Amino acid sequence: MSEKGLTTIHLKKINRAKVYHYIYRKKRTSKLQIVQELQMGLSTVSQNLNLLEEEGLIERNGYFASTGGRKAQAIQIVPDFRLSIGLGILKNMLHITAVDLYGNALYTDTISLPYSHTAAYYEQVAGKIKEFIEKKKYEEQKILGISIATQGIISSDNTMVTYGKIMNNTGMQLKDFSKYLPYPCHLEHDSKSAACLELWNHPELDSAIILLLNRNLGGAVITNRQIHQGSAMHSGSIEHMCMNPDGPLCYCKNRGCLETYCSANALEHACGLSIKEFFPLLRENKSPQLTQIWKDYLKHLAFAIKNLNLVIDAPIILSGYLAPYITEEDIGYLLTQINSSSPFPLDKEQLLTGIHGQYTPAIGAALFYIEQFLKSI
């Protein structure tokens, strides 16, 4: 093929991508808006719209209000043209979700299934994924892949858990799952998956610290919109910051780690109630004992946030299981505790809370294949 032919094909691909991504960003637009904003010819835009519609990537849905002439047809992408399945694996359960091209969690489910490093377990997990897909009547070609978030440090090539004390899953491999599944598969640390979700939800962020307030605490560091991994892949292991060398014993065999004060498990241990029981009683009954337990939790969290913010001057995002339970009053209390002893006050705008609760790692993991797909257009 001639150089001119190659150039023409390349230009067509560029124009197709420009049109698709413009529609994606705008969410709902018209042909004339595309022509004006992208400064393309009407015929070029029309050709690309027809091509994208034939491929099933976009759809024409309704009309804009008339401005005096003929009503403009509304154009949008097809959000569920492709889907990604995210999995969050915990010691006694797994969370599963289906995410569309806008990162929306269409469905979520929690399945009780104790972890064991056995072929039977991995085959059972694969069966649950297939069952979830079949139940939702998703066609196989719609599924971009299965992305798995798990507790434990992941190897640099995302194929194996190299440190997994919580679940005793050191040595878990991606192929343990993928050999039972007819889709591409990806493995990621749950905290890093949470960071992916917060990056997605906050496109304005350059840097941030993520505190994953799950049953076991987790963390991640974001710099230049990239998740910092570190030379041994354990950057962001905030859960093992020492709060008190004589404090409670952590699963890492050291004492006084932040995990032992600010994980959901630690909160349940302190109050003797499940999280779902604790918060309604805390908010409704104003029990002095429960209020003190929660204040102690927030004080420890504030102490950690203050020190983290001294190391990295960036917003702090409270994410994961406990995040939806945190109120504006709690944020105010945290800020008071942080700023009472910090030389550099933290603004309210720098303390954010996630919105996806316990499904955060699963949704964040699923974004891996969504981002790959969008880059491929």
Structural class: alpha/beta
Instruction: Please describe the biggest sheet, giving its number of strands, its sense, and whether it closes into a barrel.
Output: 5 strands, mixed
Provide the β-strand percentage band: 15-25%
Gap between N and C termini: 23 Å
* The top level CATH class name of the largest domain: Alpha Beta
- Helix and strand string, N-terminal first? HHHEEEEEHEEEHEHEEEHHHHEHEH
Number of helices: 12
CATH third-tier fold name of the largest domain: Nucleotidyltransferase, domain 5
CATH superfamily of the largest domain: ATPase, nucleotide binding domain
Average residue pLDDT? 95
In CATH, the architecture of the largest domain is 2-Layer Sandwich
Q: Please give the share of residues in helix.
A: 40-55%
If strands are numbered along the chain, what order do they take across the biggest sheet?
5-4-3-6-9
Number of strands: 14
Choose one word for the global shape: globular
Number of domains: 3
Radius of gyration: 24 Å
